[in-house]
Amino acid sequence: MTGKLGDRIQRDSLSYAAASLVLLAGSLLALGGCTQNQCSNNSVCGEKNTATGLNGSQPAAAGDANLKISVDMNPFHAGSGDLIEAYGRDQEWMLPDHQVIKGDPGYASPDSFYLFAKSFHGVAVGKLVFGVTIQNLSGGVVYLRSMQIVNLVCSGSAQGTHIWEGGGADPVTPRAIVIDLDAKRPMPLYYPKIVNLNPSSETPGTFGFQVPGGQTEQFDIAALLTKSRRSCGFGLAMDTVINGKVETLSITDSGQPFRIDGSLGGSYWMYNGGGGPATWSRVGAVANTQSRLSGPNQALAVTDP
Length: 305
Known about the structure:
By secondary structure, this protein is mainly beta. It has one domain (7-47, 56-283). 11% of the residues lie in helices and 35% in strands. It has helices at 14-26, 36-39, 81-88, 112-119; strands at 7-8, 60-62, 65-72, 90-96, 123-125, 127-136, 142-156, 160-166, 176-180, 188-191, 209-211, 216-224, 230-242, 245-251, 258-261, 268-271, 280-283. The strands form two sheets. Strands 1, 4, 5, 7, 8, 11, 13, 14, 15, 16 and 17 form an eleven-stranded mixed beta sheet that branches. A six-stranded mixed beta sheet has the order 2-3-6-12-9-10, with no helix packed on it. The chain starts with 6 loop residues before the first strand and ends in a 22-residue tail after the last strand. 40% of the residues are buried.
């Protein structure tokens, strides 16, 4: 998370204490009956009613303030350079079945592999990195109080063609909000730094930010699903305090759930670059299956039928 313009809320400050009292007194129903302690910091208060929130980048009036949410699904637009590096070292995608997969992503830009995968409606495997920017269009201060995961639905693993590209081993420590979907109770946790996106490497910090009027706050988010072969979709909800009133913001991928597939293991196509038959090579191919390309225009065989 960049936090370039938004200052961290000091929880012992008088201004935030006053806002918290307003929340307790008038907003328990809006928060699903949760208490201040249950909803503070990194805790989750169950499923929120996000019907009055914001979707995608649609602006909506909230009291006397207007907020605008923008979601950028390109991981190479993250605010943290370390997060971009960590992601670029290990990019995995599942390209859904029933389409012909061929071509050379190339290295024209850092996000060439991402753009190639998205051109085939790819779903991120293992980790999904995206950015959320909240812009305060009013003159008043907005408090960003907590974030929750909502509408989490998982099913069996996806079918299609599994592709991978990356390399590098040096540790990096990005700032990020990490969602471990393998956890018993997944929740967004803010890490001022996290070694190689490993949630067990660091203690999460306290979530709580204020956005002055006319300014923005950017969040880098990394959802992880590395220990199970399943496909999941989810949304996010953020509780805010605007002019002493609670507003719950709904955060989605253009109105649709964020999608991620579990780390599949097994066979996949590794991108080598360079063009020609060696552009792709099959890792973990079983007997009697395609293990390499006979030419640059040959399609990649399905890895997970």
